[in-house]
Specification:
1 helix; homodimer; mainly beta
Chain lengths: 134, 134
């Protein structure tokens, strides 16, 4: 079984929602106590989510490597091992690896009723390259 | 700043609730989206929580070292880096490091109204030694 430093690398995520090679290991599911699910996501270099929103927010805890978090209309924010991002509700954003390193984060994603995420358009190569122009 | 592999070691936790040397770095607080808080807890060898309960459960994600999780009346369960424990509501239990290694876990602790935990009696040295007798 291929491992990251801590958790298994898991199953590849669909290219409809993730550009490049991204993988998920589920860690905990919504249940009678948890109004969230949590998992470990590994992004290989260049891999990233498509633009998306969460109806009740999400927490990212970066546990390896480095990458970016960007909210629509704002500069991309470099994130690295040890960083925590508290993503607000209904804010269009993406996250992913840098061009040269993988990025591994735990994601804790709240539910609003039965919805966790609304997937939007891919982050274009131009948008991705733009994170290096600032 | 003293670091673990990923997060800062943080502030020492009170001996009223933690036997031995345990440390906390808060990672995310309860807010309008999160009905939980999350933090990184480091237990030095022999360190452990006192017996306690959570009114709406807790998730542990072990990110370094190894230790034990024990529910009252059951054998202690060895836990190590990469393990996830989904602790039920209102079950008396403790967690902590092994006698020879530290244990570092992320803890995601749900709130029920404004309560996350009820602290009970310390895990005695006899109870702690007993985890090695099975």
């Amino acid at each position: 079984m291929e491992m990251n430093e801590i958790f298994p690398k898991g199953q590849q995520l669909p290219n409809e929602w993730f550009s490049g090679n991204a993988f998920l290991t589920p860690l905990v599911a919504k249940d009678k106590n948890h109004e969230f699910s949590a998992g470990c996501v590994t992004f290989e270099p260049h891999a990233r989510t498509v633009w998306h929103t969460h109806p009740k927010g999400q927490v990212l805890m970066v546990i390896d490597g480095n990458g970016f978090y960007q909210e629509k209309g704002k500069p991309a924010q470099p994130i690295k091992k040890g960083d925590v991002v508290n993503i607000p509700e209904n804010v269009e954003h993406w996250h992913g690896a840098s061009a040269s390193n993988k990025m591994v984060h735990i994601a804790i994603t709240n539910y609003k009723d039965d919805v966790q995420v609304t997937w939007l358009k891919p982050v274009s190569d131009e948008e991705y390259k733009d994170v290096y122009s600032h």
